Every structure is written in C-alpha cells, then in structure tokens.
Amino acid sequence: MKIKIRTTGFTLIEVLVALAILGIALSAVLRASVVTTDQAQAIKLKLLAQWSAENLLAEQIARKHWPDPGIQTGNSEQAGITLQWEQTTTTTPNPDFRRIEIKIYAQPDHTYALTQLVGFATNPSAL
Predict the structure, then answer these.
(1) Where are the domains of the chain?
(2) Whole-model pTM?
(3) What is the pLDDT of residues 46-71, one digit of tens each?
(4) 97-105 vs 81-91, strand pairing mode
C-alpha cells in the first residue's frame, strides 16, 4: 500500500526569495520618501527666501527713501529661519530711477542664492 503525503506550503528558498524582493521594494520606498522630504525642505526654504526678498523690496519702496548706489547686506528672519540678504543698488539711464537687486542666501559663504529679485525705486523728489 502506497501512502501519499501531501506537501503544501513554501520551501525555505521560496520564502527567502520573497523576503529579498520585499526588502528591495521597501528600501526603494524608503529612499523615495527621503528624497521627497528633502525636496519639500528645499522648496520651503526657497519660498521663505522669495517672501523675504519681496518684503525687503516692498519696504524699500514704501519708505520712499532714495537709495544710494552700492551694496548693503543684512539678515532677515522668516518662520524662525535666518536668511542673509545682499542688496545691490545701481543707477539707471533715467536719473530718477534706481535698480535694486536683492539676493537671498541661506549660507554665509554666498555661493548659491536661494532667490534673486529685481525692482526699481523712483526718486520721491521727482514726483
């Protein structure tokens, strides 16, 4: 008499292959989430820099102060993050206008500007 033994289930090799595939897939998901988080932080920093530049330019124009040509630097804070700015004021062909260029940096070495904004100021005495 023959006895039939039914074997069901997975072999050890099949389980190990399935675990390896699962491990690779999970590491890819983890890497994607890290990249997404880094990109979100970079976008947040650029947005804060843009707001800071717009605030500086709006303040310059609202003060109705006739800026002297030259370079000014300083710090501004947005959402608890300190950003460094550099404002370059130059003359234009029209003597009643000044070109104001504002660059915002996150690092003190000024190798990479997060944003750059250009605007113009008018001479208040000419109005």
Answers:
(1) 12-126
(2) 0.72
(3) 999 999 999 999 998 888 888 899 99
(4) antiparallel
Pick from 45, 36, 37, 96: nearest CA to 66: 96
Least confident of 20-24, 81-85, 123-127: 123-127
- Quick: pLDDT tens for 77-86: 888 889 999 9
Which CATH architecture does the domain made up of 12-126 adopt? 2-Layer Sandwich (3.30)
**For the chain, how far is it from start to end, CA to CA, in angstroms?**
114
